[in-house]
Amino acid sequence: MPIAAVLAAALLGVTPYNFTVSNVDVVPDLHGNPANAQLVVFAAGNQYMAMHALVAAFQREHPDVKRVFYETLPPGILAKQIEAGALQIGNLVIDPKPDVFLSGKKRMTIERTRGIVGPAHTYATNTLAILVRKGNPKHVYSLRDLGRADVRVAMPNPAWEGVSGQIQAAYRKAGGAALVSTIMVTKRNAGTTLLTKIHHRQSPRWILSGRADAGVVWISEALYQAKVTGRLAVVKIPASENATAIYQAAVITKAPHPAAAKAFVTFLTGARARAIYASYGFTTGGSHS
């Protein structure tokens, strides 16, 4: 049975008819059945690689929660979906009501101020790295190299991807305001800085296809993509130029399934979830904020 069918069966409790057409009818950031879910999780997209293992481990501890639906989109998009009450992708419109929100601390603070979520709990952190093609054909060894005119950079859109601000902060540490301006203004105008809409999906694909030469992503994403593709490589960024993401989880104030939501947030700060996150390159820990 194909892995996608195995995942679907685990999330839905049934084996659905699979009509997936490669590169056409594929929605990689929606997982499970939103219609009858007993737990709905909206998770920051950069955690997509860990979510199946997390949900499976949670269900082993809570076998009564058999049907889980989760999304792994940029937190800014998830926030807009919560505000709108529904999400449209092509001809598909869904309106799942989330129980749990996972995002970076800055976005979580915004949503808590708006009354969308309750108390936040920190469960993991992350740092940045540069993703390039295997063999590093453009000889990108530092953030400053991303300012070169011959290097095409995949960059998250500042309009809704919080990581954009952290990447720009890293640029500033490495090369001051001049490097930020070069990458975000000069090269964008020249067409050599390319803004993504779903950074955790588009950046590796653009680099693999040759549309971009490099992109700054979270180290967990870089390590995962290098491993699963065998065609990408990781360039590390020194601590003096790096930025740290603090990931938090909170129960949605109007969660349809508050008991399951609280159980999932508690699970995320526990030893099993920390081990899963660590296995994907995250740094783990937990606290209230």
TrEMBL record:
One of its GO terms (molecular function) is molybdate ion binding. One of its GO terms (biological process) is molybdate ion transport. Gene3D superfamilies: Periplasmic binding protein-like II. Pfam families: SBP_bac_11 (PF13531). InterPro entries: ModA/WtpA. This is Putative ABC-type transport system, periplasmic component. It comes from mine drainage metagenome.
